Amino acid sequence: MNTHPSETNSTNASPPDPSRTEAIIAPGDQARLKEWYRSSHSAYLRTILRLFGWPSANRAGAYLAQNAWLLTRHGDATPALQLCVLKLIERQASTPAERTNLAYLTDHVLLARGEPQMYGTQVTVDDLRGLASPRTLRDPENVDARRRAVGLGPLADYLRGFEPGHR
């Protein structure tokens, strides 16, 4: 039985089992627990990719595709894996939801690399004024056309959703 992320068998495609953390993480140690989940989920996702390729919705179903995307999106400790998945989704996006996920992951990866985002999905909110704005944005004049191409609504509408009274 695997008890630590470093012992993860690369051919085992089972999702991480939180009950196995007791032997390696003391109760209340949230930082280690969070790191265990990140490492375990990244190892699980790598195994899925190695064995089956990207589980696009047309190949594996919408549920698996969405969950694989969520593991990727929240895998900030593995930017190389995020970039790899981004390239796979670019080639295989088969549904409107996958095109939307592509936009969110694209922006996330670009910002993590210190580059401006394309779709304006990553925002900051000025809590004093109650206004939301996109983080650094490439070619803002054409952002709504790019958003429309991946199934997202206008940026102004998206930003309003972060403001008080709309959350």
Please specify the SSE layout and strand pairing.
Elements: H1 30-52, H2 57-60, H3 62-73, H4 79-92, H5 96-112, E1 123-126, E2 131-134, H6 143-149, H7 155-160
Helix pairs in contact: 3-5, 4-5
Structure description:
This protein has 167 residues and is mainly α. The protein is 50% helix and 5% strand. The protein has seven helices and two strands. The chain has helices at 30-52, 57-60, 62-73, 79-92, 96-112, 143-149, 155-160; strands at residues 123-126, 131-134. Strands 1-2 form a two-stranded antiparallel sheet. The longest helix is centred in the N-terminal third of the chain and has 23 residues, at 30-52. The chain starts with 29 loop residues before the first helix and ends in a 7-residue tail after the last helix. The relative contact order is 0.09. The model is unreliable at 1-12 (pLDDT under 50).
Main structural class = mainly alpha
Strand content: under 5%
Bulk shape? globular
Low-confidence stretches: 1-12
Global Rg: 18 Å
Helix content: 40-55%
Which structural traits does this protein have?
mainly alpha; two-stranded antiparallel sheet; 2 strands; 167 residues; single chain; 5% strand; globular
